[in-house]
Amino acid sequence: MAERHHQKDQTDELADQGRRTFLKGSAAMIGAAALGACSTNQQGTPHEGFTPPAPAPATHNKHEVKPGQLDDYYGFWSGGQSGEIRILGVPSMRELKRIPVFNRDSATGWGGTDFSKDLLGNRMSGDTHHVHLSYENGTYDGRYVYVNDKAGARLARVRIATMEVDKIVDIPNSQGTHGIFPQRHKTGYVMCNSEFRTPQVNDGRDLDTPANYAAMHTAIDGETMEVKWQVMVEGNMDLAATDYKGLYSFATCYNSEGADTLEGMMAADRDRLYVFNIPEIEKAVQAGNTIKVGDSDVPVVDARGENSAYVLRVPVPKSPHGVNIDPTGNYAVASGKLSPTVTVVDINKLADAFAGKIQPRDCVVAEPEVGLGPLHTCFDDRGNAYTSIFIDSVITKWNIQKAIAQYSDASVNPIVQKLDVHYQVGHTNASMSETKEADGKWLIALCKFSKDRFLNVGMLHPENDQLVDISGERMHLVHDGPTYSEPHDCVVVRKDLIHPLKVQDRKDARFAIYEAWAKEDGVDLLTTNKMIRKGKNFVRVYMTSVAPAFFLKKFTVKKGDRVQVILTNLDNVEDLSHGFCMSNHDVNFIVNPQDTQSYTFTADKAGVYWYYCPWFCHALHLEMRGRMLVEG
Ligand code: CUK
Ligand code: CUA
């Protein structure tokens, strides 16, 4: 550790000129080419002689959470192409849990159990980018986590009580569901953006006519998870945001040209920030001023073309990506990937712009220069903003009021600090930043590349989710967090707002299906251990367990039978999960304390098959097993 004293403090953003030069190589390429190249090859390894910066000095290491201590925050991470959500403790950055969402998960049986199969069908992959929690009065109400599936145009919800997915909804007339954001004044709509423009109707009648394609801004009821309405616009939509009052939602549009090629998408000087006027849209829906598109019954407000009572188009520099609302609710900050600036929109001016009293562009009150390739912005409780800068690989801290002052007085410098991150940062988020209770303690930089930061584990490197202390005037990098593919965004939530169950309360909506089967069969889930033949080729096997035993030791079926196992874990002890694995049948699922799960499979081979408990539950865990006898 002594050598640490000889190394540079990497919190000095200008510390490593060699690294700076190395990154400039990419920045010097034309913007879009550089952005694209980062996902291909040219920055794969640092140049010869490159010295990685040292960790922050010990004085800043207050992120350490000692053995036996708990974190102060829950971090909810999207899992990208893994299709899942992860929970990390912050500031320790310890991964605490993975919640399977759109993926099949061997450990829990998600994607195989009857309940999850009903939600997923046969689709076992997804692409989660954005996780956001349900709100009440501008802060988290601790009930739900929402996450998008870009790959399959779906929205999923996790119930925080159980930390399991309870609903998944398909979004009609949509592809590339990317930005989502719940309303913040209460659990109202979750707004979802289609990133990809498609023919509307998309049934083959209209194919290679991109000029006619359109995209949907969709409102889903965060409580019922019903799709309530859609607004159709001409441009694509990337990230989403909502205000704090329930008046507006926002979407960045990086392809106002409506092009289908990269060159075409970069043709115009400016793109736009869409602002949706939710009360006006609701009025139109109620009055029936809507259309139906394709075979969906969801009412669609057609707002293509000019500004209207429904949609305002605020011109912003080219190719915006992120849009984020500051904790006061006064400002929307949009970032243009191909402009070194962020655009600050005064939300309080939007009403005048909708009324035609001012131009949409008059709502812009600042446009500070923050670096090459700005993507996303988060906030502290002291009026500062932190923007992730992809090409420069820095987090730029800037002051909002100073940026507004600079807009009319060029001598004001709003930039507070630029901090190197490693490398190619996508999203950044700060503790409670998406609420009015932003507290300015910790910032996460979700870096797409880790290059030299970890042991070489082969071609696919971990991502690097870095922890930054933002409690002081200057930012300090304090931790490197390797993560598996590929978090895009995270939210960091005070722990007093999150209260999951430790033992199932048996009130989960999922229980309705098991109770219905038990009623139909005249049995009690808590006491029944027997097989019931339901038809020529279908049996139900009711089973209970207490460590270390299943209370059904064997059952006999015929080759070809569909077998539905309904297993109830009677243990009432925190952390005492059992599970059920049927050897050689691709059946493996968990049953948490006081929970019931069911799984249906085909007994397609005659013979004897042992089922066993895969979760290490007891000294005699290995003895926790039984036999399925399959008559040929
Ligand atoms: S994200 Cu989805 S492409 Cu910047 Cu929110 Cu990574
Ligand atoms: Cu139950 Cu192992």
From TrEMBL:
Its EC number is 1.7.2.4. Its main location: other. It is an enzyme of class 1 (oxidoreductase). Residues 41-63 are annotated as: Disordered. It is found in: Cell envelope. One of its GO terms (cellular component) is cell envelope. NCBIfam families: nitrous_NosZ_RR, TAT_signal_seq. PANTHER family: CYTOCHROME C OXIDASE SUBUNIT II, NITROUS-OXIDE REDUCTASE. This is Nitrous-oxide reductase. It comes from Sulfidibacter corallicola. The lineage of its organism: Bacteria, Pseudomonadati, Acidobacteriota, Holophagae, Acanthopleuribacterales.
